[in-house]
């Protein structure tokens, strides 16, 4: 077995790699690591390596056709210091939220979707 990578890789299938790059880098603080658009890009935030795979990528081609048309209910989870401030900032940038802000015993969260419908959870832990 190979030595584990210090980052965690998640692959999202996206309709438009360039739009996904812009969404994650401009709105959510990711850094572009590598782009082979329109097929593929790799963006990073901390230990999270997000692989953005367009239709021409091998990752998308390996996905069975019956699963490729809709994003799953899984999502990446990004911890923020001030959720209300993030909601205001992103709302002013015309980012659409797909849920209301919800508070529970562990903290507060809200969901947004990338341009292809993949979910992102912004979470502020209870202090």
UniProtKB/TrEMBL annotation:
Q: InterPro entries of this UniProt entry?
A: Glyas_Fos-R_dOase_dom, VOC_core
Checking Pfam families in the record gives:
Glyoxalase (PF00903)
Q: Ranges for the VOC domain?
A: 6-125
- The protein's name in its UniProt record: VOC family protein
């Amino acid at each position: 077995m190979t030595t584990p990578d210090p980052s965690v890789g998640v692959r999202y299938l996206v309709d438009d790699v360039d739009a996904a790059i812009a969404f994650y880098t401009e709105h959510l603080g990711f850094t572009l690591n590598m782009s082979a658009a329109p097929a593929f890009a790799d963006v990073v935030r901390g230990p999270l390596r997000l692989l953005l795979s367009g239709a021409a990528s091998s990752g998308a081609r390996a996905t069975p056709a019956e699963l490729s048309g809709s994003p799953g209910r899984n999502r990446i989870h990004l911890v923020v210091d001030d959720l209300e401030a993030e909601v205001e900032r992103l709302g002013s940038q015309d980012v659409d939220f797909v849920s209301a802000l919800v508070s529970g015993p562990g903290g507060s969260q809200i969901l947004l979707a990338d341009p292809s419908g993949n979910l992102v959870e912004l979470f502020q832990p209870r202090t």
